[in-house]
Amino acid sequence: MAKELVEIMQNFTLSSKGRGSTYLDLGDVDDGIMDCQDSLIGKIKGEKIANFTGVKKFVTVAWSYPKGLEVIELWPNLFQFTIPDAQDKERIWLRGPRVTDNQILVLREWEIGIEENDSAFNLAPLCVQFWNLPLHWLTKSVEKKIGAIFDEVKDVIIQQTGGKEGKHMKILVQADISQPLLRGTTVQMNGVNKWLSFRYEKCSDFCYSCGIIGHSERNCKEPAVVKSGQHQNQYGPWLRAVSSKGSPQKENNPKI
Ligand SMILES: [Zn+2]
């Protein structure tokens, strides 16, 4: 903001009224803080500008009709959600669905200036399935340990049966989505390396070249350098978990 102010002062010939600074006391913004403190700020990370009515309808239904919900569009793809009921707010903050029109809605609790802090919206919840696990690794403690490669593990869910999907585990994590999606990880035990592959549930659009959420391959500014013999796209639809009724997409899987 300081840079912006300097530019304005340099670019315009300001009248004395324009130059005159107004001084605000903390008490002047009390009402504004009261209005904001029950709110969540949500940023949609994607190339499409989300339609206000569509977002309002999505959150109302997906968050199970929170009492007194108010939605304000602050900026294209930036929204303020006021949720007066503390339990509703907590539930939505922790678990509320956040993918609309294949774009992720990253939520943060309101704090002063957050609407101007783009990096505040880099941490987002992702539901990650772990595949290729030996049966005796299917425990919460093992998954928590492996999940430590993400920024935070929120929950571990053990699938009781494999069903049509096959046996796997899933964890709810907070991940830095300004970085490429992790395709898997190697785990070493007794000197033997094992590759675990990841699938992401209800995953928003991501770039098949660099693996970052929020833009397409066509608009990628840092496409992956592909070495000879490597798969053309380092990322692809195989990273998406299909709905629990189906089975994971196996075609085009480059066997990473
Ligand atoms: Zn990219």
Automatic annotation (TrEMBL):
GO terms for molecular function: nucleic acid binding; zinc ion binding. The keyword Magnesium does not apply. This is CCHC-type domain-containing protein. Residues 207-222 form the CCHC-type domain. The lineage of its organism: Eukaryota, Viridiplantae, Streptophyta, Embryophyta, Tracheophyta. Keywords: Metal-binding, Zinc, Zinc-finger. It comes from the Eukaryota.
